[in-house]
Write a structure and sequence with these properties.
- With 154 residues, the protein is mainly α.
- Helices cover 73% and strands 0% of the residues.
- Helix 1 packs antiparallel against helix 2 and helix 6 packs across helix 8.
């Protein structure tokens, strides 16, 4: 069943975005509840993309509703005030939080979850060419931010 196959992937995607187990569990449960309510409308062949699109929309709404800047609104430290105790993973997570929500979602789906452009296009309801453009821009921004951080560490 699609739910069993995709539950862990959906949780991983939502958790990578929010960094909070309880909130990620809540959103995944909401997605499953919505899938159950819409089971007669959602075709099995498109259930995976439907679940991820619904999960994506739910987490964006969650962040907006709670107005939690700790999830995606934190900025990088001011120049010269870099905390050198950061681990590489923490730096990458901090840089990811600087991305706009759609770009962050595309990076997470592509680079961390391994989805292809077509699947991401279906999940986020944007064209494949938009996925490629947003991914390129996001990676450039990440590269620029990481370059600035490494300059501080020298």
């Amino acid at each position: 069943m699609v739910v069993e196959e995709q539950a862990q992937n959906l949780f991983g995607y939502v958790f990578q975005y929010l960094k909070n187990h309880e909130d990620a569990n809540d959103i995944v449960q909401d997605v499953f509840e919505k899938l159950w309510k819409n089971r007669k409308k959602v075709e099995v062949t498109s259930a995976k993309s439907w679940m991820f699109r619904t999960g994506h929309n739910a987490l964006i709404n969650f962040v907006k509703k709670k107005n939690r800047t700790d999830y995606c609104g934190e900025s990088l430290p001011e120049r010269g005030k870099v905390d050198h105790s950061f681990e590489t993973k923490e730096i990458v997570e901090k840089v990811l939080r600087t991305l706009p929500p759609l770009q962050k979602s595309i990076v997470l789906l592509r680079d961390l979850e391994g989805y292809n452009y077509k699947e991401i296009s279906e999940i986020l309801d944007v064209s494949e060419s938009q996925v490629k453009v947003y991914l390129f821009r996001a990676r450039k921004k990440i590269q620029k931010q990481l370059k600035h951080l490494t300059l501080f560490n020298e």
